[in-house]
Amino acid sequence: MKRILDLALGIVTSVGGFLEIGSIATAAQAGASFGFQLAWAIALGTLCIAFLVEMAGRFAAVSKHTIADAMRERFGAPFFTTLAAIMLGVSLLVMAAEVGGVGAALELATGISIPIWAIPVALVAWALLWYTTFGVIENGVSLLGLVTVAFVVGAVKLHPQYGEVARGLIPTLPKQDAAKYWFTAVSILGASISPYLFFFYSSGAIEDKWDTTYLWSNRAIAAIGMGFGGFLSIAVLVLAALIFHPHNIEVEHYQQLPELLTPVLGRAGFWLVVASLAIACLGATLEIALALAYLVAQGLGWTWGENVKPREDARFCLLYTVLVFAASLFSLAGADPLKMTQISMALTAASLPIGVLPFLVLMNDRQYLGDHTNRVAGNAIVMVISVLAGVLALISIPLQIIGGS
Length: 405
Description:
The protein has helices spanning about 1-20, 20-35, 40-65, 65-75, 75-110, 115-130, 135-145, 150-155, 160-165, 180-190, 195-205, 215-245, 260-265, 265-300, 315-330, 335-360, 365-370, 375-405. By secondary structure, the chain is an all-alpha fold. The chain has a single domain, classed as Up-down Bundle (Amino acid/polyamine transporter I).
């Protein structure tokens, strides 16, 4: 019975923790600009992150190592230092967008501008990290994040042509504005396949003391949790495609996001979007802060753990404290969270091969995994998607800059 409850909670946690400002914003922009045409990018990103999450959980359960720990051990200090520096730079910008997302939700709710909320949001995030356990962060915030299911309710109530949506799952060439099309596709892939997710997941498996008896549970969590998370993103795209696209309205400001649900659910829709944005972005802020602290602490051999008292892993706690408040400085300076999201998601996609390909080497190392190494199909899918995302990012980002978008 306990294993069934663990499985159910793990799936719910994956669903509740999947959708955040990156997924919401990129899906909304895709639907508004291109209708259903970019649904394939969400499906592709969801497939890749499901494989990566399953691999991360399997690696931790079998080897008793986290990914960061094994990368430092397998590839040496110079490689790990380079990887950690890139991950810190890109993921800090992603966390800044998430902090801005919480501030944006609070501004929508109160009318008080985002910079005023920057430090209070950082203080709340820090307090949750400092005073609670891994279980509270993993399950509590993510359970609240299930409010994002409201996007599915809204999409169904609009009665989309499901055949048209299905056709969007087949990749096609853009009908217009190719640079923006590919840049949006890259941003979606970056939002879906954020490396911090599988670093966080492997560390969580160690925190929860997984062993090989969890392998089937891990597969179910990865497949169902990530799959339904991708379904939520497609629901956002469908709403934008039906509400904004017919009127040629682009999603350029976060204040437009409540319009995804207000035409369908009225005033309740407004508050559901506000709640979804606040809870999902706060949850992502906590996960990114922990993922980066895990990465550095494990690579440097520090004592680490969200279930450990702060005085017993002081350097680990100091690091996530610095990261949370550093991320808040962007909002304090007045940076627009939607623009930060666009930039950070594209940079995440560009950096994917750097983080993913060494991980695939570990997943085929019998010294760590014995008979539980990857199969050819899993390696091929993740490698192709990661390299594709990186190549598209390197092409589309300059095109967007040249085009002035």
